[in-house]
Design a protein that fits this description.
By secondary structure, the protein is of the alpha/beta class. The protein folds into 2 domains: 20-338, TIM Barrel (Alpha-Beta Barrel); 358-433, Macroglobulin (MG2) domain (Immunoglobulin-like), CATH 2.60.40.1930. Helices cover 29% and strands 21% of the residues. The strands form 3 sheets. It has an 8-stranded parallel beta sheet.
């Protein structure tokens, strides 16, 4: 007995759950969040930054709905000089607006992410011209906001890093910015994401977490883009209306599943905190399709225990009838899926998860006209391939009767989706033709 007890004690210790890091705890505290969109990140507006884009009353209504955290997108690139020494006018009105949001969130006991949003010219040929400028911005911001309680205020380095920007170069920029922040504060959590526009597919196992131990990771989900962004004139490319989303098996649903599989796999592999920083479905989709999409997303977020920030409150992706903000006006499927206004019922229906992206090899995904792509399946003797353009039009279809196929592609420049189907299983891969 005396010999068994120590062994049992050691065994019990070895199976204790891994302690949460500070970053884990802060990511978990985000809960349900909202982006303050179409305001401080929109310098094209007249009289930007407008004084009434959002008010404390808006945040009070959000809190009534159950929102716990705010993400504040700001176009800092618009107010920092493009030549050394990269002067930033800290008396600019945009800082007064940020300070107002800081005051509101403190009074309402909400969390806040200060997000550095778009207008950074980052490409493989020009990124070094922005390295010092980017780091200087974050040095100024960290110095200005280091007084904020790190338990409730976080910094997001860059919204949606470019799709065609090399990850190695992005990591250099991010590590330099992290060093700049850490000279002023070592306690605040910093939010990062890989390239490819923060899409879930950027989180493959080849994306290795950065070295700083107080980082939180984020991704965005608008998959499939031609459904969620249909009818918006500002979208690039512009997608026509009429695209539906249903619970039946189709390439759009497979595209959504595929990105989520990548997130789950990456989180399980590296055990890092991650949250959904943006997601939404535009108001030009039909109501039934919007409900199907948000119901799937809500179920996934529940089952994976992932916190989120919806985009947006009252504009293009609104969840309210006629843009009227109230508990009576919210679309019931949104309220149920996202557990707003006291709706705590968890859906019992489980969406079928399709074949994992790891079960199928497809390469290359960046092609020129005439490139032959290779498709390999694991233990699947037959499969079908369909290629769609961004508008959902079928460009090519071919069936293979062996577990490996070669597909010559003569596609014009643009982005395409390749659906690979084997029996009832289906995945979608993104394809770029240059």
């Amino acid at each position: 007995m005396k010999r068994v007890l120590p062994l049992l004690f050691i065994t019990l210790i070895s199976f204790q759950p891994m302690a949460q890091t500070v970053a884990d705890q802060r990511c978990a505290a985000f809960g349900k969040g909202m982006n303050l969109s179409n305001w401080l990140e929109a310098p094209w507006q007249t009289n930007w930054p407008t004084a009434t884009g959002y008010t404390k009353a808006d945040l009070e209504l959000m809190k009534v709905a159950g929102i716990q955290s705010i993400r504040l997108p700001v176009c800092f690139a618009h107010i920092i000089d493009t030549v050394a020494p990269y002067y930033i006018d800290t008396n600019h009105l945009v800082f007064a607006r940020i300070d107002s949001v800081i005051k509101w969130t403190a009074e309402l006991q909400m969390n806040l992410i200060i997000d550095n949003h778009h207008e950074w010219t980052l490409s493989d040929s020009r990124w070094r011209n922005n390295l010092e400028r980017f780091g200087h911005l974050w040095s100024v911001l960290a110095s200005r906001y280091k007084y904020l309680d790190p338990e409730h205020y976080s910094f997001e380095l860059l919204n949606e890093p470019p799709i065609f920007f090399a990850l190695d170069s992005l990591n250099i920029i991010f590590n330099d910015a992290i060093d700049s922040i850490r000279q002023h504060t070592t306690t605040h959590s910093i939010i990062v994401s890989p390239n490819n526009g923060s899409w879930g597919r950027a989180f493959t196992t080849t994306y290795i977490p950065l070295a700083d131990s107080n980082l939180i990771y984020t991704w965005h989900c608008y998959d499939p883009l031609n459904f969620t962004h249909q009818g918006f004139s500002w979208a690039t490319p512009s997608f026509p209306t009429g695209m539906a989303f249903s619970s039946s098996t189709n390439w759009m649903e497979s595209w959504l599943y595929d990105g989520i599989n990548e997130i789950n796999h990456w989180r399980d592999t590296f055990n890092k905190p991650i949250f959904l920083g943006e997601f939404g479905v535009g108001e030009h989709a039909d109501d039934e399709s919007r409900c199907q999409w948000i119901s799937f997303m809500g179920h996934y977020l529940d089952s994976a225990n992932i916190n989120w920030f919806y985009w947006d409150w009252r504009w293009d992706f609104t969840m309210f009838h006629s843009h009227v903000i109230s508990a009576d006006s919210v679309l019931s499927c949104f309220s149920h899926a996202l557990h707003l206004y006291g709706d705590t019922l968890i859906s019992t229906s489980t969406p079928e998860i399709k074949m994992s992206a790891g079960d199928i090899q497809f390469y290359p995904t960046l092609i020129s006209k005439g490139t032959t792509c290779v498709i390999k399946t694991e233990g699947v003797p037959q499969f079908n391939v369909k290629v769609f353009d961004c508008a959902g039009r079928l460009m090519l279809q071919q069936k293979f009767n062996q577990p490996e196929g070669r597909l010559p592609l003569y596609l014009e420049k643009g982005m395409y989706f390749v659906q690979i189907t084997a029996g009832e299983q289906s995945v979608v891969k993104k394809l770029i033709s240059d």
